[in-house]
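G.,

No rush on this.
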Amino acid sequence: MFDTMTGTKLVGAVCGALLVFLLGGYFAGELYSMGGHHHPGEEEEQAYIIPVEETGGAAEEAAPEVPFEELWASADASAGEAVFRNCRSCHALEAGDNRVGPTLYDVVGRPVDSVEGYAYSGALEEVVDEWTPEHIFEFLHDPRGYAPGTKMTYAGLPSAEDRVNLIAWLETNPGG
């Protein structure tokens, strides 16, 4: 079994391994910073600055925003089914099946905060009354920005095409 000497060797081996890892991390940090003594929050001076010519900002300009009506007219409901994977972990399509979020059964055209048995935050009621395609479109882009205080923690769906496709799919598939 274990005697005192074996236990001492085991503790020594663990402490030795820990020391090797700590010293390795320290020396790697010293090599990376080239021996400088950098403290967290302290600014470092740039050793060499690479000059970059200004291009006039043409590459940084955002693409013009397409009006919702145009996007909605070209929405592809079948493509929206694939986008629903983002929603499936928190929402169901079956009536009365509330999960982390309320059921999305027949959501398009439904009054906001109207699902029985789901405890809403009340933030959406202050912004909108009904889930029209336009309101869903804006909400899905940035839920917390659209309705500050909402319980929805999803960061948002940046692609306008994905949003209209999802809404079109939800409209044609009320119960999954």
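When you get to it, here's the other one too:
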Amino acid sequence: MKKTYYLAALLVVFLSFSCKKGAAPEMKPLEIAVTDVLQQDVRLESEFTGQTFGQADIQINPRVDGVIESLNFKEGSLVTKGQLLYTIDPLPFQAKVNQAEGSLAEVEARLAKTKSDYEMMVPLAKINAVSQRELVAAKSAYNASLAAISATKASLQNARLELGYCRILAPITGLIGISKVRVGDYVRPGATSVLNTVSDLGDVRVRFTMSEQEFLRIYREVNKPDSKLKGAGQSISLTLSDGTIYPQTGKVSFADRQVDPTTGAITFEAAFPNPDKLLRPGQYVKIGVVTDVRNAALVIPQRAVIEMQGIYQVYVLGDSSKVQMQIIKPGPAIKDGYIVEDGLKSGDKIAMGGTSLLKNGSVITPKIIQWKPGQAETAPTK
């Protein structure tokens, strides 16, 4: 009897222990971040790649040939209009000036003689003391001397101009670059003979291209009577190569007269203020142009959207903290969000996702957060 009792007691303890071990622990609902579907006016920007140019980029070319005698500026510094930049050896051109001045003095002496001869013969010819042939010859010599004076003065002026070209001055006030020549280099006139470049950086020009199709769409939209894009070209954004937004906004200055037949694109130019001289010619930047405006658009975070085989879905928070999967039709992206064209309405709350444990019909513990496109998520203020 005792043995039977002990066996029964051990069986009860074993069964009790087995039942406790096999019971599954109760799962707590997942804590999931939830945000409201935003409804707001949205200005959609298209992004284009552009290159910067100075307000004026003036190449400095020699206008006479010769040896560079001096550089009178600091490379990469600000130069003022009329400042001496380069000097070319002036001795050959000074010699030309001296020679032209000598020729002019000689011609002036000849002019004085021919004028005196002609004036002396005029009264003599009236009394037939000299023949008409001699009078005509004297007048011709006098006229030839006058012509020689004009030609010699022109030669002297040209020689003085060439001598002046030996001093190369800054054409504008601006930032000068690295010199392409050094003292002792021989230079000669020509389009390919560039000594340096001076750029006016007061305003910076940015050239960018837009496809013909995009241009036609925007052009038609802007010219509608009730267009929301009127004035969009007066507020252009610029993103630098490191991803930072340039603090100044620009405006479109003009569009090229034609579409490039080789690329099917049209070139635009925008002007940006450059008070801190941060922008320099030759930079590659991104231009943001407002190409669409949508009023009362629904906007949600991109990371809340699940895409599978071309189908876009979100988890919508329903009653009893239960989430239901909802198919949506996303529109254009805006920063880190999407415009939703169908499938949601204002006031809906959606799960931010971020976990594979979330399933259709899951009960969650919602953690309400505030989200705006391009801004960090924050907890709601109390």
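The two ends are 72 Å apart (CA to CA). The helical segments are 2-22, 91-126, 132-164, 212-222.

Enjoy the weekend,
O.
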